[in-house]
Amino acid sequence: MDLYCVMGNPIEHSRSPWIHARFAELTGQALRYERRLVPMGGFDAAVSAFRADTSGTARGCNITVPFKFDSARLAQHVTPRASLAQAVNVLSFRKDGVHGDNTDGIGLVNDIQRNADVALAGRDVLLIGAGGGSAGVLGPILEAGARRVVVANRTLAKAVTLVQRHAVLALQHHASLEAQALHTIGGAFDVVVNATASSLAGGEVPVAASVLKRGTLAVDMMYGPSTAGFMAWARAHDAVPRDGLGMLVEQAAEAFDIWRGVRPPAAQVLAELRALVG
Questions:
Q1: Looking at the whole model, is its pTM more than 0.90?
Q2: Structural domain range at position 45
Q3: Options 68, 95, 158, 213, the catalytic residue
């Protein structure tokens, strides 16, 4: 049987096995999908061990925090969107080597536009963080037609690097793109995306509430109990909170299509998952 997995650290919270099992059931695909905890510094060895698993044929992996940059380095062939992001969250094992892609951005954009019913065209977007999560979503946000995008990070230099890498894409889509430090963000935004690990670590929201206005869509790319602080913060300032479950399902649907050549019913699975987790 074809084998797939999600690799990360931590990983016990991951809903990916349930999502892909449901995708497989609904599309008639035979596969097995599991979680794999990867020790820090042990990513390459973990991928090698998975590929050597004799219980089936390893076909691919989803990669989550904090290994998306490691995954990009390991991949021998990468898509243009993954190359721009310099971060890979989908590995495919093929005859000509290891292929890498990044479905985070299109997953986020699809969730915002299809499931939350918020068009990104002409909107002002704040992206908090400049790590692997942000790197994966910035390009698709620009491609969706955002008017202005601010990348804010605790270390300004990292935000500047990310912005510079996307400068040509921003020009092509007539978007304003800038980097700011967390404490210097000016103005309110239509969409605020938290791409930091602050929720996962149980930390406070790292920006002032002045970035929100009534009706701002405030999206935490994480999901589960750890997002409670961000969700409450958004709600308290008249914003519309949204966790990362929709993004998770939508990026998984993209990965499933890459691996199997079949588009699963993402909206149906998202509704079922929300009912399951309450």
A1: yes
A2: 2-102+246-277
A3: 68
